[in-house]
User: Fold these one by one.
Assistant:
Number 1:
Amino acid sequence: MNKIYDVIIIGGGPSGAACALKSLKLGLDILLIEKDPNSTKLCGGVTPEVTREILKYDIQLDIPKNVMSRPHHLGLYLVSPSGQERSIPNYRLLNLSRDKFDRWMLNNYVNMKGNILLDTYPKNIRILDDYVKLEIVREGIHHEYVAGKYLVAADGVFSWVRRKLYPDTNNNLIPVMQEKIVLDGEVEDYFYMMLLKDSITPIYGYVIPKESYSLIGVGSTREEIGNITKFIDRFKSWATENLDIRLRHILSRRLGYIPYGRPRVTYGKNILFLGDAASLCNPFSGEGIRNGIESGLLAAEAIYQGLSENRYATEIYHEFVKDLTLYIIKMKKIVEKLDNDIKEKFVIKGGF
Ligand SMILES: Cc1cc2nc3c(=O)[nH]c(=O)nc-3n(C[C@H](O)[C@H](O)[C@H](O)COP(=O)(O)OP(=O)(O)OC[C@H]3O[C@@H](n4cnc5c(N)ncnc54)[C@H](O)[C@@H]3O)c2cc1C
């Protein structure tokens, strides 16, 4: 190991890929490490229209139609515990095909000749004054050492880096069960977010139309995870009665997790956390794609500034993500005291 990269990024999801692409544009010397580039992510794939603008403005990438699901755009439709319904005017969401979107992001980086090691994961980490040294495992067998002035952890909700450096992290997670389901009947072009009585679902239930199927999901509290199949069944009964649909057959059912811990965006002088690894996903709405991308772009900018101005990028990054961090903390507090009244107000006001 002779070379020291400016930055090593672990994880090539939206956060890590955005950071890698921006770092390349800024002329940084990067290495991206991705454990499983062909994994299928459990996700609704819904993200605000602004995600497109951010990618265009910051890294000059235009999301192509072939990484989107049909319908390409969705409105937001809310239902409250008392049954009040409303669509939010002028609110447009992009309906992404999540796996295709992630691969498209990563391919852009590869096409720009960014350094990448696939089927590779870190095994050990040593933090020195001026750089971080990693022992990595390639293709399950080859052990090597790599080093970077900065290490960026973008390795998702179960972040290896976070667990290694913050072993006290008690993995505060919100379980979400999602089904891919074929429906009879018309689902309109909406992301349906149902904030129903907590006797139906403790947090929310959602329906998202995709090509030839729909996604139906429910979020639960951690304490009630044992009841999550009951919640999704109750939610489906509600949806069958209240939307004009019938459930034909389930293609798959999976359990996933949304981070719910206190955001942790840095460690020491040279480690930065992004997206789910930093707990920067909105615990109320589950929105994590846009936040991950934003944190990735800001981390690249912070590292560039840090190296140019001889300052610690971690300090700069802290400042850059302050508003996002405070917003996530606010949402976490709301989820902690979420009850039917709060849900009702949210729907009536169309936000908090
Ligand atoms: C059921 C469900 C539905 C959701 N729906 C939505 C939605 O509709 N809209 C939305 O915005 N968000 C949604 N989210 C949240 C969203 O999926 C995440 O917030 C988002 O994926 C975070 O991006 P990321 O890049 O930080 O992490 P990830 O997308 O998880 O990417 C992490 C990457 O790191 C790699 N990796 C992991 N460990 C290692 C390792 N040790 N070494 C090397 N590589 C590693 C993984 O293979 C992966 O590619 C949903 C989440 C769930 C659970």
Number 2:
Amino acid sequence: MKKYYIILLITMFSCSLLYAQLPNGNFNAATCTGNGAFATCVPNWIQSHGSPSINSSTNPYAWMWSYSARGEGILANFNFQQGVTYSITCRIRTRDYNIQTIRDNALLNIMAANGIVSQTSSSPIPTPTSSQNIISNLFNNYTNLVWTNITTTFTADANYSQFWVHPRMNLPAQPDGNGNTRQSELSIDDITITVVSPPCDDCYSFQPKPGQEYIVSGWVKEEHATQVMSYSSSYIRVNFYNQQGNIIQSTDFNPVGHIIDSWQRIADTFIIPGNATDIEVELRNDNQNIVSYFDDIRVHPFNSNMKTYVYDPQTQWLMAEQDENNYSTFYEYDNQGGLVRIKKETEKGIYTVQETRSSHTKNN
Ligand SMILES: [Ca+2]
Ligand SMILES: [Ca+2]
């Protein structure tokens, strides 16, 4: 409500609006195969250590090895949010060469992590600054050289930005009885990560969708020494980010129309780009020499109506409501709480639409 509330200058709020997906979890977007493929040609993925392979005849998958606490691992960008529960599916294939000491010592590790610095050296296996196990199972849980489907749920105990898969065997390569020594080996494919439950019941009740149209609106006021016809320094900027955290589209929404009681309206539409995962709304003032104010910022689907209400925090009286075009109706009261005046804001100005006189009889 413009009359009572002032939101000042340049503020910024950002919300994670769309459920994150793991791009290229099936590795089919890889543009090369073989040893070291993750260094160059697997979108959204890189090696955490060593030179993991993309193996493929027709369906690409990732392949890694480990022994002596060395080996290979793969790393993807993924934003795990604290308190959110995820369902993770994949298919894995272990190779233990039918050697029980490998089965009893090699681990399949799938983790959420922060701070892993990618290296092409196979040694040592890197240590994240923080991490949480999603799966940490001995190879003994799986059958040698058989693809196994895995489904698990995982609740993040902190925010993590990395998804990490690697085998780990701290023992050296093990004799197979035929004069060879053998490492532990891991293949993985078809990784999906989906949100099972957000951290609160209503925190994701507003879930903008890529490809859909939305209305952004708000009101701007600038303090000028002399009267102006339009405000030119203050505007709303909407930024769209992709999974990698890069801005893929940025749109400015300027105030237009009459200045009403020193406020000018912003009202426009935008379509969320198909590959957007986050939206950021900035309230901007590009002129350091003037003060500007923002109020009644709203974002809602184009195919919807929105009404918002302003209540006095002390008396709980309804002070104003904003209609589907973000124009206000103001309610004014006497000291007893009797409604005395209703004023309506239109594109031409503010009009009194109802005036009431009431009297209170005193009983002596
Ligand atoms: Ca695949
Ligand atoms: Ca390799």
Number 3:
Amino acid sequence: MTMNDPQQQQMIRDAMKAIAERRPGRTKLVYDKTKKTIVAVAEGSEPPRALNITADDADMFGVITLSGQWLRQEWHRLNGSASIAARFTSWDNGDAYTHYELGPQGGPTISECTIALERASEPAPRLRIVLTKVNAVGRAGNTFVATDGSIFVATAYEHQDGRDIPLDVTIAEVQPALSARRAGILETSVLSDRSALFIGLGTGGGYATIELAKCGVRRFALVDPDRLSVGNVVRHPGGISQVGRLKVHVIRDLILEKNPDAQVDVYPFAIAAENMDAIRPLVRAANVVICGTDNRPSKLLINQLCIEENVVAVYGGAFRRAYGGQVLRVQPRVSPCQQCFVSAMPEQAADVEISSPDEAEAIAYSDRPVAVEPGLSLDVLPIANFLTKLALLELLDGKPTSLDVLRRDYSAPWYLWLNRPESGTPYSGMPPLSDSSDEMTINRWYGVGFERDTACPACGDFLNVTAAAHGIDLDSVVIPSKV
Ligand SMILES: [Zn+2]
């Protein structure tokens, strides 16, 4: 028999169909090494000395993935007309077809697919999924339970060169599949009503958004005026094909890639005094504010708003050339604020990442220039990770969670991490990590306690403390009201 034999072709087709449906067929495929071709062998006949191809080898066929949620939404239409159209992204020359409705970013090549109930009698299109009614729910990923309770098994075919090539079909149930992986640590819906506001979507802020989306946070507000540049791509989660887009849009799409049901509001605002009225309601609506901006004025503006609106904020930043990093958590009027931090530890507060060419030049190595925002993504991610963990604990406040045990460990206002013993810093003489030591070393986080400044202009009683220090009786002072 040869490939041109119609009976052999039918046997190959039947065997491929059986493989795609992962059920044993009456024929099986074997690879005939002498003829260098696939042949079908009927059950009971003597197979040639060749490789058997079984359902486990079904990866030789392409795969097609359809959204179960979409299919339920469209069920009424499908049931009425017996077939409906759907769009799929075709990846890798047809090796994988992914339902366009499954996520926010389809690929560049779209294939039209017909989804048909078995009774549809129109001519076979190039790509089709056929739903066949069955009596019981199977364990395979191609089973679909319709809104009326009826059960179907999906098979899929690609029509090519006069033949139907089977595709391995999966009906994807996104939310159950995602929450199943988190169960035990974070229960399915525990974070679905919590909301995070991100100020600044650089590397740290960008990664933190995506990590919280993976944890199941559903509501995000993103504030950043910048666009993704080519140079950003070396550290930012956004990729080269996104260059030029606003970072709020790049990150929104990455969040939706991880949690398609998330609600993401975007605000391409600068953090400046004139925008505070627009940002205030976003702070008020948030359960936590994550601030990853790299300059002091913007941090102090956000600090002021968060204290006034009584919302916990976490601030993260890398030190220059990412020799280390720090995270500050501010619980308004409970723990020291960003302004208290600047007063208590001015050097640490000033040692932030380099974000302008002038600043880069000022600290350049003598023999070569330092790029703006130098530092590897690798060196920023531990800071983003710590920042996200603190934000997650705030979002879980009041919720039953096994992560509560961590509150003991995350009780300091400020956390410090050192990446290397950078010369010219107080940490240049640290002992090697390999020595067992009680001294500070690289690659550890240190919780650092310090007190609130009672005279802090942002969170303290500045007026009374200052008046008392200077022996001024405030009752005798007339304070002009704001014009
Ligand atoms: Zn303060």
